[in-house]
């Protein structure tokens, strides 16, 4: 295999390896949460309110059963296990990041190709995108959540919508640069339908920047979801998310700082790992970088 192929460069790139390893470890923790010394993250026991890390005892579950449990990260103000809530919150954060990136890229790619290829649609679509970009992303997300309700699908949609204009502008610029290329002109000369030209000839040439943009959107989505939950405007408090855990722990931060610090210690490396992965992908997939290498 040619050592200059993108796959080999990806494997050799330190940022890509580091980000992928951290994300894989976090995803594994989320998947294996039921078998890693956790209990129901919604289980409350008044006997274990704000206990220190390492405390143990018989915890009463919602179904009335009692289990012997160790609070590896302590408990919150209503007796819920922080370790369990942090691990199950990993699932929510990674799902929000992945699905938000996929939705924003799918919508933005479709609109960007239409705006870049069809001049008649360009003026209308881009003015709508400019209007959306004029609204702060967090404010727009808060408005959409308030209108649609705080559920996981609506939170994903609310975070994805502010990212769509950025993807649209990126794809539009790429399509404008490609629509007059000889291979596109040849396809038109053969009476190839416009839809086929867009999806078969133009889209593959825009995939590399889209993949990189998608990683940055995923990192931003994880952080935005935590901000919304921290402000009490995201998912309900009974849903274990890192933002919810920090929001509930801030009131008693002086007595139990771990309730804020533990989820933050998961949030920071997650966002950092996704950004590292995006930086590495940009370096490897950027043609200018390839020529320098």
Could you spell the SSE succession in H and E letters? Answer: HHEEHHHHHHHHHH
For the terminal residues, how far apart are their CA atoms? 17 Å
**What value does the average pLDDT take?**
87
- CATH class, named Mainly Alpha
Mind telling me which CATH architecture this is?
Orthogonal Bundle
Number of helices: 12
**Overall shape:** elongated
Strand share of the residues? under 5%
CATH topology: MetI-like fold
Number of strands: 2
Structural domain tally:
1
Question: Major sheet: order of its strands?
Answer: 1-2
Please give the largest β-sheet: 2 strands, antiparallel
Unreliable segments (pLDDT under 50, ≥5 consecutive)? none
The gyration radius over C-alpha positions equals 23 Å
Membrane topology: Multi-pass membrane protein
Family: Belongs to the binding-protein-dependent transport system permease family.
GO cellular component, one term: plasma membrane
GO biological process, one term: transmembrane transport
Description of the structure:
With 293 residues, the protein is mostly helical. The chain has 12 helices and 2 strands, in the order ααββαααααααααα. It has one domain (6-289): MetI-like (MetI-like fold, Orthogonal Bundle). The chain has helices spanning 6-12, 14-31, 82-117, 119-133, 137-148, 152-160, 164-178, 182-189, 194-230, 242-249, 258-285, 287-292, and strands at residues 55-60, 66-71. A two-stranded antiparallel sheet has the order 1-2. 39% of the residues are buried.
